[in-house]
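Quick entry, no commentary yet.
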Amino acid sequence: MTEKSSKNSPHTFEFLIAGVPYKLRTNHDEFTVQELVEFINLKMEHFLRATKNGSFQNAAVLTAMNLAEELLFLKKRARKELERLEEKTLKISMDLENSKIQKL
């Protein structure tokens, strides 16, 4: 991966996804971009092997669908955890209010 940048502007990175060259302009640092590229390349390699004809387009769509599925699952899990924490916070708040009333 190569980087082209000036100090105060977003960085432009050049990299390969499944052997295809891309450029990305982002405020992310090189380490983050490299992590993303490696992650996508692993997914693409998996789906390129899984497709019958090794189609780049099919592998890209399957990669996108897989990532969307993971994202939606994580969002649902985070939403449930947030709801659980909100309920717990409300219960603690009510318990505190009740303890104040009982002390009066």
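second:
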Amino acid sequence: MSDATPNPVDPTPAHERENPEPHEQENFPSLLLLFLCSILVFVSALYLQRYSGNFDPLVYNEEVQGAGSAAAGSAAVVDPIAAGKRLFVNNCVTCHQANGQGLAGVYPPLAGSDWVNDGEEALVRILIHGMSGPVVVNGVTYNGAMPAFGPLGSNWKDDKIAHVLTYIRQEWGNKGAPVTKETVARIRAETAARTKAWTAPELAEFHPKK
């Protein structure tokens, strides 16, 4: 005879013995998390208000002063001297030096230069198409090459050429008048067919001696 005792029958109905159906619980974020999110939104709004520049695409243009100011929509004011100096430092300082003295026997000076001070007509032509061959500057002969900065298709537009020329004509004690973009545009149109650098003899008529 077996000594095993049969399991008693569980009187609980079968459907009540099943595990409860899983269900989604709503876990509300803590107050600390809500507070931190609010702070983040507030700080972001302050940052955009201060540094967005009213989302003006010109606000960080290196040649524009005052874009994105309180007077939104007003015309941007360009300081030709400041813009010209930046262009000079980035493109011309290696040859002509920060003090405008050039390199003796190699690159002519701009400071006190008769070519810089005596008139703008020759100067604009030189910057647009370059210059090659011997040239006398302040009584000293130089024989090198000045690269062209403004031929057709160049990204040196009329205002850039006007700015850098205005800067060198008013820096280092120079007393030349400002060069306007209208003057550059006129000369560029007059010389549009030119494809080579100028020489000193060709520029003689545009470079009056005092």
